[in-house]
Amino acid sequence: MIEGQNSLRSYISTHCETFDLAYHRYLYGKELNETLRLSTIYHASASSVMTFSWILGEFQGKEEELAKLVCQMRRLGMDALCQKQDPYQVDD
Fold first, then answer.
1. How far apart are alpha carbons 17 and 9 in whole angstroms?
2. Could you tell me if 44 and 20 are in contact, meaning their C-beta atoms sit under 8 angstroms apart?
3. What is the distance between the alpha carbons of residues 4 and 88, in angstroms, rounded to a whole number?
């Protein structure tokens, strides 16, 4: 179910935020400063919205295309903050 008991929306949103915060801590090498933490949460939320759009049939593309779009959008805002080269490199 998207909402209610066993809410997919809640699960995906929580998972994306938790995973991304841990990944960015790993990339950054220490606890995240407030700017990086908030940027991470912002991008995790955007990824969740795009995922729900795909699940609900609003995104008319393949899974691979969605994954590439998410990574490309994250690269726009996170590369400089993470101070790592290509943290969102997409392999074909």
1. 12
2. yes
3. 33
CA quadruple 51, 56, 58, 61: dihedral sign: positive
Amino acid at 35: T
Q: Which residues 6+ apart lie within 8 Å of 79 measured at CB?
A: 85, 86, 87, 88
| Full DSSP string of 21-55 | HHHHHHHHTSPPPHHHHHHHHHHHHHHHHHHHHHH
Closest CA to 47 of 25, 21, 29: 21
pTM (predicted TM-score): 0.69
- pLDDT tens digits in sequence order for the chain, 92 residues long: 667 777 888 888 899 899 989 988 888 888 888 988 998 898 889 888 888 888 888 877 787 887 787 777 777 766 666 665 555 555 65
